Amino acid sequence: MKSLIDRYIDRVLLVANLPQEKSEPIRRELKDHLLQKTEDLIASSTPREEAMLEALRQHGSPRDIGYRLRGPFPWIDIRSRGTARGVIAIGPKAVGIVAVGGFATGIIAFGGVACGLISAGGFALGLLFAFAGFGMGGVAFGGFTMGIVAAGGYVAGIVAVGGEGWALWVPWVPHGGSGGIVSHYTAANVPPLLKSLAKLMKIPETLDRYPQIVWPLYGLGIFGMSWLQMRERKRIRSDFDWLVDDE
User: Fold this and answer.
1) pTM for the full model?
2) Contact between 108 and 120 (Cβ < 8 Å)
3) 79 pairs with which residues across the strands?
């Protein structure tokens, strides 16, 4: 039967999910450290079993230690708790090149709150593009939007298309829109720069297509995040023998 220390280390390495050649040296190092800590506590008159438990308690949660061992920025980091950090990061909080989470920050970010170059979510801040219920960005599409180019139900921007709002210039009224946007310029006096910005929404029909493309992709991203987190949670719980479920 495995000792308490071996079971603790198994848990750490299960969470860390490292290849065999990396996990074995870590196993030896952890075991040596924990055995030494146990002996130090025994030397201070702590009973052996209590000393072993105290050594593990002082060392920390197996889940937290395992996540730290994954490295600073792996290719893929999927977590059911805490902040995922990786090239592809998926978790309640996520930071990565591609980040998916409740709060996501990345070059491409999907989440309840998303911040990146290209972002989609309930609230999205996108330096280039933002697709959201409430969006802010260079080019923003959504229910409530603010941007250099903004399109949506309620909008504010330099160039804007939508139902209600304000803009320096409104190039057209979208299909089904009320046209309730205050425009500073008209087609007769609009500067050439603003005409160029309007090319980002080149034809009115384009505005109707964005929700049909973006929201299904957003929904697919959220579904994929939930599925991968569920698999990660199941993997961590599998073959698990520890005193306290730290998930």
Assistant:
1) 0.71
2) no
3) none
